[in-house]
């Protein structure tokens, strides 16, 4: 667009609303349940994310909000509810491990999603980078250095730089529609 001349009408571009301006009032419970159901149509893998807390204790939980972000540098991301009792441990950890569960590890997922205080009683574990527990026989493992933690509504986003990884070449466990699933035939 050239210089503005006398008699030209200036076109103004509306300002982009701030993120807080996009915040809607709390939705009714039924609407939240419906939204959660719709989001559940998206199939995800199932992971157990682990770290050492500030007291040197192993911490872990089942997570399906895991995704790759970048190859250069290699970054991955997962999210955790702000009210999670594990949040502080993961926010302060120097490292964490993302253990992608195989189809044979449904019970590991269920155990880490439970209230059982002895999470690491199930599975065979070794110490990874920064002491983060690594599950043997996982479909894949990403050992990460904590990179950034960000706010996102009622969750925190935890970004990690992949420092080490392994891929077992086996089928991963899938979660879709509120249920565990096996991978189907290749299309």
Structural class designation: mainly beta
Model regions low in confidence, pLDDT < 50 over at least 5 residues: 1-14
Percentage beta strand: 35-45%
Number of strands: 12
CA-atom Rg in angstroms:
21 Å
> Terminal Cα separation, in Å?
49 Å
Q: What percent of residues adopt helix (DSSP H or I)?
A: 10-25%
Any descriptors?
single chain, 187 residues, Pnp Oxidase, Chain A, seven-stranded antiparallel sheet, three-stranded antiparallel sheet, 12 strands, 13% helix, disordered N terminus
What's the SSE blueprint?
Blueprint: H1 29-39, E1 44-45, E2 47-52, E3 58-63, E4 66-71, E5 74-81, H2 87-92, E6 95-100, H3 106-113, E7 125-127, E8 133-135, E9 140-152, E10 155-167, E11 174-176, E12 179-181
Antiparallel strand pairs: 1-11, 2-3, 2-6, 4-5, 5-10, 6-9, 7-8, 9-10, 11-12
How is this structure best described in words?
The model is unreliable at 1-14 (pLDDT under 50). This protein has one domain (44-175): Roll (Pnp Oxidase, Chain A). With 187 residues, the protein is mainly β. β9 (140-152) and β10 (155-167) form a beta hairpin. It contains 3 helices and 12 strands, in the order αβββββαβαββββββ. It has a 7-stranded antiparallel beta sheet.
Quick recap:
Helices cover 13% and strands 39% of the residues. It has helices at 29-39, 87-92, 106-113, and strands at residues 44-45, 47-52, 58-63, 66-71, 74-81, 95-100, 125-127, 133-135, 140-152, 155-167, 174-176, 179-181.
